[in-house]
Design a protein that fits this description.
Blueprint: E1 2-6, H1 10-22, E2 26-30, H2 41-44, E3 54-57, E4 67-70, H3 72-83, H4 91-121, H5 127-147, H6 161-170, H7 184-194, H8 197-210, H9 217-223, H10 228-234
Parallel strand pairs: 1-2
Antiparallel strand pairs: 1-3, 3-4
Family: Belongs to the GST superfamily.
Protein name: Glutathione transferase
InterPro entries: Glutathione-S-Trfase_C-like, Glutathione-S-Trfase_C_sf, Glutathione_S-Trfase, Glutathione_S-Trfase_N, GST_C, Thioredoxin-like_sf
Length: about 240
């Protein structure tokens, strides 16, 4: 059993995508990030960066005590190694998958996240910041579009954790002010993954939480602008 600490954000969706594809038993523990659940001591005990997702594997392959994992990329890698799924066995293909997982973790996710922040959540519209991150998101879409030319999936012929890492960050493309029609290879890949039964199930698991009210002004104060002192105080 996998205990998944989750909220329906792109990083949260990565993990439900894997769990649904792999057919692993899991239970969701909602972490309402606009209510400050990520600062609770019991959550920080195994997710010290006060971010979700995080997992507890109650039946690790070594037969020992439960294993905790935080950071979505690390969780994907851990689950792939646990199950032997969605990660190639040969060293060269495995290297390629991990390159693109790190590309998402270090590039697409953070830049699209800043795009969301300045375009949607920032209390004042700073045009330079909006333009900066919309353009950088566009550049990254272009990188992925070129990578997908002549390939069904990011790492090649097989669906992998590289695809699971990136797909949820393309879902909000309209909010990111991106036109998928301008990226034909990316658009084809996106539609292919969107139609997978496991993708449909994964997003359905998040619907009860996604229907919560929009982030309030108090929620924004919790989500944004934390310092070491304020985050520690909340814990």
């Amino acid at each position: 059993m996998i205990d998944l600490y989750y909220w329906p954000t792109p990083n949260g969706h990565k993990i439900t995508l894997f769990l649904e594809e792999a057919g692993l038993d899991y239970r969701i523990h909602p972490v309402d990030i606009s209510a400050g659940d990520q600062f609770k001591p019991e959550f920080l005990a195994f997710s010290p960066n006060n971010r979700m997702p995080a997992i507890i594997d109650t039946a690790p392959t070594d037969g020992g005590e439960p294993i905790t994992v935080f950071e979505s990329g690390a969780i994907l890698q851990y689950l792939a190694e646990k199950t032997g799924k969605f990660m190639p066995a040969d060293v060269r293909s495995r290297k390629t998958v991990m390159e693109w997982v790190f590309w998402q973790m270090g590039g697409l996710g953070p830049m699209a996240g800043q795009n969301h922040h300045f375009g949607v959540y920032a209390p004042e519209k700073i045009q330079y910041a909006i333009d900066r991150y919309v353009k950088e998101t566009n550049r990254l879409y272009g990188v992925l579009d070129r990578r997908l030319e002549g390939r069904p999936f990011i790492a090649g012929e097989e669906y992998s954790i590289a695809d699971m890492a990136s797909y949820p960050w393309i879902v909000p493309h309209e909010r990111q002010q991106q036109d998928l029609q301008a990226f034909p290879n990316l658009h084809r890949w996106f539609d292919q993954i969107r139609q997978r039964p496991a993708t449909v199930r994964a997003y359905a698991r998040g619907e009860p939480f996604a229907s919560r009210p929009a982030v309030t002004e108090e929620g924004k104060k919790i989500l944004f602008g934390q310092t070491a002192q304020t985050a520690g105080a909340r814990a």
